Amino acid sequence: MSPEHVPAQLRAVSGDPGAVLSGLPGAGPLPVRAMLDAARAAVVGRARESEVLAAALGAGRSVLLEGPPGTGKTTLLRALAAGAGVGLELVEGNAELSPARLVGHHDPSRVLTEDYKPENFVPGALVRALTSGALLYVEELNRVPEETLNVLLGVLSERRLHVPRLGVVDAAPSFRLVAAMNPSDAVGTGRITPALYDRSCRVGFAHQSAAEEVRIVVRDHPAADATFVDRAVRATRTHPDLRLGSSVRGALDLVAVGASLAELRGTSLADPGETGTDAALAALTGRVQLLEGSTRTVEDVVTELWRATAPVDGSADGTGEDGPGKA
Q: What structural domains does the chain harbor?
């Protein structure tokens, strides 16, 4: 069948002529330039990731984002969705995410009196995203049960969902599936099937440079002491006892708690003394991970790290851009 004989509603940029000719719904284009402009306005740095993710979504692809928490994945995706003018359906992946919770269900009370009807179906995030053409964002994908992943695989393959007692739900042209996971987290997680990787593009996220993280903190706390902000960002970037350092969320909390604590105690972030140490302990000890076999407590390590960043001869003793603590 030649392209001119394909019904207009089936012509798409899905890149899968077989899907188009078989009558399956295709993916329509998204405004890549508008998405990228929105990302640049909302996100500090992340130029490469923004371009690749916008291009993949614009070309009709679904995407898997891999990286540790606090690396801006959700913030970037919200900006891209806003730039594209589409909604964002957010789903938290966990062991309780059953197919019924993801897809939806018929209202039990109405079923008793009305039987199964489309009017008493309560749509879940997947059906809402399919019908409205939103981006479906599934966080912590490697915590999702296998039976629920199989539902997502079917949607990735056909852009179509078969719902018992409801019928077939076709994806609107702007629908995309975006999932995120932290591959280094092995607690309560499962293995992602190669079939899912085969149906998605992958974009990796690492921690940003110290300079970019400083810009993020300054954007949220423009009046904070510059040296204190620099110390907050660099504090856990490297240490021989650390397996994983804090994300930029730790620096944001450290500056916020430090400023509040300094005001309470009548001190200043320019000369925080023990106030800075107390704020660092509150903001960072729950976010860093010690190496297995370390004989030190996390409080000892964070205290040492914070004091090591104290200014020397009027300048912060930075510890470099990235190190083992950010691995």
A: 3-204 (3.40.50.300), 210-326 (no CATH)
